[in-house]
Amino acid sequence: MAVVWSADRDGVHYEVRQAGKTLRLYANGIQHSEFHPGRLLTGSVWDLLWLPALLHEPSQCRRVLVLGLGGGSLIPPLRRLLDPEILMAVELDAPHLEVAREVFAIESFGVDTWLADARLWLQAYDGPPFDLIIEDLFAPSNDQVTRAVAADPEWFACLADNLTPTGTLVMNFGDWQEYRDSPVAADWPLAEHGFASRFRLSCSDCHNAVMAFTREPARSIHLRRRIANTPELNGFLAKRRLDYHIRQLD
């Protein structure tokens, strides 16, 4: 695997490694993003972050916000499968955003990017709400895969306040225990913020627990049916690469 880009910033060593057409972004040896110009699926956690959008009709996702862009692994599938009118992304780590813009060329997919602290950015945001918010906030300096922003009631309320009445919120946790130890594992997020359903997504390639909160009632069978009816996801090779498990919790 060839190293095609590297940098050392603030005690963190970054590398982009290439294998064939696949590009992978690492920070201190931990993989943060994967990108392939002609492939939607990674077979890992990045697929879990956009899959909840298919719990409902893709046409409902007109405004999409990604908090924690990394190298931009989510942007090609979001553009191709949802094709939202507005696609926005915030990233705190300058080298990650540099890779996304200059190495992965994600801005060619029609995404507006900001270099900013996602929590401060959203707290200051005063625009229209979003149909889909994907919150994937992990620090590149971490030696272990753990969240960089606590999933506390204040942050959850900020996320919920910027969703449409029919919106979906996706949050990434390092593992199931990190989610279970957080305040948002209780019942109050649904009761207080108008969510109807809650799901856990996981895959065999990682320990992450990706949580999806939907304001419209949904069932996991809805996701499976839309995958089956989506040509980019139901072919032989796609089926072999799409590794996911979904469990409804409410």
From TrEMBL:
Q: Which InterPro entries match?
A: SAM-dependent_MTases_sf
Source organism's superkingdom? Bacteria
Q: Which UniProt keywords apply?
A: Polyamine biosynthesis
Q: Which GO terms describe its biological process?
A: polyamine biosynthetic process
Its protein name is: Spermidine synthase
